[in-house]
Design a protein that fits this description.
This protein is of the alpha+beta class and 461 residues long. It contains 17 helices and twelve strands. Helix 5 crosses helix 11, helix 9 crosses helix 10 and helix 15 packs antiparallel against helix 16.
Length: 461
């Protein structure tokens, strides 16, 4: 797939004039796109494309680089690295990362269109996930039908449907957590355990994979006195508490055939064949494995969208449950949160800053550290939280500001003032200096868990 994607990109970019540009002391080829240029404003934008194994270079182009407001500059960055494709829109400051082996025909067509006819609409479609949501939902329904047909132990159809809906949403949530290393630090944990069961290597004497899941759910839902649970059956797993399992009982009398969970070779079929042409026999784990869970693909927003689609019209009407699109929640959160912070800074320092970026770029140490303190203390409430789309958008806005503060603090050679109180893997409380965290994902995790989720966000439903 990597060579196919590379050929498509190089073929489409070949028609554009090239300009040598410099980014952070490195030279890149800018493919200048006439549709993205304005001579009167001295704006000449286009694509940059590179293939690299240098993670520092990827981080620089993805996170730190900010193009100039005029002159020759990339509008879109396209980066092939390891087994991923990164696409960054520098003007709108958004990106998407695709796992190469999971890129399907739908996305390839969007990529070709954006490169050959780079209108605003076609460029924006690269980041639009409505097709991701729709395709996933179609397959999700097929998997649901398969489970409904095969499950045993529940007599009434209504109860059977309720159980399956709860079970599938629980598994969807757990798969999402698996992708973040919650279970034995294995991003393929549920399939690993399925294969161990099939190969008779899984301890515990389980007769079916569903029996193993029931055992796992008990261990990660009930052991509230510890951050982790560990035994020879499940490995070392994060205890997530009972919240995920409140709406569904995993009764011992229920049986679900292993074929409903995983079939060898089915994942590739689900990637390559359009969802509408698939049969109704879609194993649940194959469905999850076939989709892309990297940044900008299936994430909290998509989980909320799937949840919203599963609620019938009558239930929405009765519960008042409505899904607000990501574009709207992001816009509202960004403008509300940033305006609040700007007001606090202007009031404290008698300034007239317009936005958070202007505050950060003022290069004032006292202002920067005060902004960090205000950010830690901000309180955001969603009184009708639903599937938490507004709060997810708020998290993204807050994390983005924390990242900018950290980068500017490093530039200003600030050594102290950006500390948090957190627990280490032994459960011991200690101070952590965020300026000493080099791993980007660990930085985000610490910010989310020990500041944002514990101090900033509140939801009621």
């Amino acid at each position: 797939m990597k060579s196919d994607v590379k050929k498509i990109i190089e073929k489409e970019l070949g028609k554009y004039k090239q300009k040598d540009i410099k980014i952070s002391d490195k030279r890149y080829v800018l493919y200048v796109v006439p549709e993205l240029c304005n001579e009167d404003l001295n704006i000449f934008e286009g694509f940059i494309f590179l293939e690299t194994d240098n993670r520092s270079e990827v981080f620089e182009l993805k996170t730190r680089y900010k193009p100039p407001v005029s002159g020759y500059a990339p509008r879109i960055g396209i980066i092939l690295y390891e087994d991923h494709l990164l696409i960054k829109d520098y003007r709108n400051n958004k990106h998407i990362i695709k796992t190469l082996k999971k890129i399907n025909g739908t996305f390839l067509e969007k990529l070709k269109k954006a490169l050959s006819d780079p209108t605003e609409a076609n460029l924006n479609k690269l980041f639009d996930r409505s097709d991701v949501i729709e395709e996933f939902y179609i397959l999700f329904k097929k998997s649901r039908e398969y489970l409904l047909k095969k499950i045993r132990g529940i007599s009434e159809e209504e109860n059977k449907e309720e159980f399956i809906d709860n079970f599938m949403m629980q598994m969807l949530t757990l798969w999402y957590l698996q992708e973040r290393g919650f279970f034995n630090n294995d991003k393929n944990y549920f399939i690993t355990k399925f294969n161990e069961l099939k190969q008779k290597k899984l301890f515990g004497g389980f007769d079916s994979y569903y029996e193993f899941l029931t055992y796992l759910f008990e261990k990660i839902g009930d052991n509230l006195n510890s951050q982790y649970y560990e035994d020879e059956i499940v490995g070392r797993v994060v205890v997530i508490g009972p919240a995920v399992f409140l709406n569904g009982e995993h009764r011992k009398a229920i049986s679900v055939p292993d074929e409903c969970f995983y079939k060898e070779g089915m994942t590739e079929t689900l990637i390559n064949i359009p969802p509408g042409k698939m049969s109704t026999e879609v194993p649940l784990l194959n469905l999850f494995e076939s989709r892309d869970w990297t940044e900008g693909n299936i994430d909290e927003f998509v989980l909320g969208s799937i949840y919203e689609k599963l609620i019938t019209y009558m239930e929405r009407k009765e519960l008042g449950a409505y899904y607000t699109p990501e574009e709207i929640t992001s816009y509202i959160c960004k403008n509300t949160i940033e305006l609040y912070l700007v007001d606090r800074i202007n009031e404290k320092f008698n300034e007239n800053f317009i936005n958070v970026d202007q505050i950060i770029e003022s290069n004032n140490r006292d202002v920067l550290l005060y902004l960090y303190e205000q950010l830690k203390e901000i309180k955001i409430l969603d009184p009708a939280v639903g599937s938490a789309h507004f709060l997810e958008s708020a998290i993204n806005v807050l994390v983005g500001i924390y990242e900018k503060i950290r980068e500017k603090a490093k530039e200003l050679n600030i050594k102290k003032g950006l500390e948090i109180t957190a627990t280490d893997e032994k459960g011991e409380i200690r101070k952590i200096n965020l300026l000493e965290i080099s791993d980007e994902e660990r930085f985000k995790l610490l910010i989310k868990f020990f500041i944002i989720l514990s101090r900033n966000l509140y939801g009621v439903d």
